[in-house]
UniProtKB/TrEMBL annotation:
Protein name per the record: Uncharacterized protein
Lineage: Bacteria, Bacillati, Actinomycetota, Actinomycetes, Kitasatosporales
Amino acid sequence: MTSEKLPDWVPASGVRLRLAGVHFDAVRVRGVRGEAVLHHLVRATGGHPGPVVGELWRGRWTYFLVPPGSSKEHPWPPGAACFGPCARDQYVGIPAADGNTYPLSWRAGPPGVGEFVDPALLFAVVTAQLCLPPDG
């Protein structure tokens, strides 16, 4: 993907911390639940869920990037952390489109300008996933 098609908050190389609530809000879900949410979003959107960042260490978090200010529109259930206007001074690691960005990566490809995860669809999927009993 060329840099002209990337939002200005995506770094040219490596990983950069970006303040949530400025260019995007983020909803974070841990481990297999985050993977399940992503799986259902991919199916519901025909393979184009919007920008999703995966973290490959510690909690194996998945960050779903939604339009700035939109995360406060939903009462996110326990297990989904809101980064944006509902919390102050929270940063999200954003990987470059290409190159070594370990431990972060774009799970559905880097975003185009103005592209985000649909917050209403994300809320529905997150609520469904986090209300299910854990696999046992």
